[in-house]
Design the sequence.
């Protein structure tokens, strides 16, 4: 977010644009807007807490986590498990295909890749 901007900008990278397009094409408009707002609120909260992008949190990872968090609600989800699980799997596949998922990150709940209090 620039000093003059009041609202954080959507990640303007090839991976960010692909993610934006995937979400817009996959979920309803209201769910997509909810996901984009989640990212905006997360960035604003991090800034309110004095956290700096690239230092205390990974801005790219935050963007993708927020924007892709409801992919499991899309009609392309298999529908065999909880939407949260299917959405996480779909997001991981999407990011791996675009080499956007950092290899050094651990799996949720395993403790590997932990950043001790940092938003990642």
Sequence:
């Amino acid at each position: 977010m620039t000093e003059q901007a009041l609202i954080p900008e959507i990640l303007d990278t090839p991976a960010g644009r692909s993610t934006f397009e995937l979400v817009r094409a996959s979920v309803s408009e209201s769910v997509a807007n909810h996901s984009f707002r989640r990212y905006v609120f997360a960035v604003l909260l991090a800034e309110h807490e004095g956290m700096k992008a690239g230092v205390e949190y990974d801005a790219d990872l935050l963007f993708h986590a927020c924007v892709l968090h409801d992919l499991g609600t899309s009609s392309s989800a298999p529908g065999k498990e909880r939407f949260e699980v299917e959405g996480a799997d779909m997001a991981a596949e999407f990011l791996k295909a675009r080499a956007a998922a950092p290899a050094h990150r651990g799996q949720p709940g395993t403790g590997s890749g932990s950043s001790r209090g940092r938003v990642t």
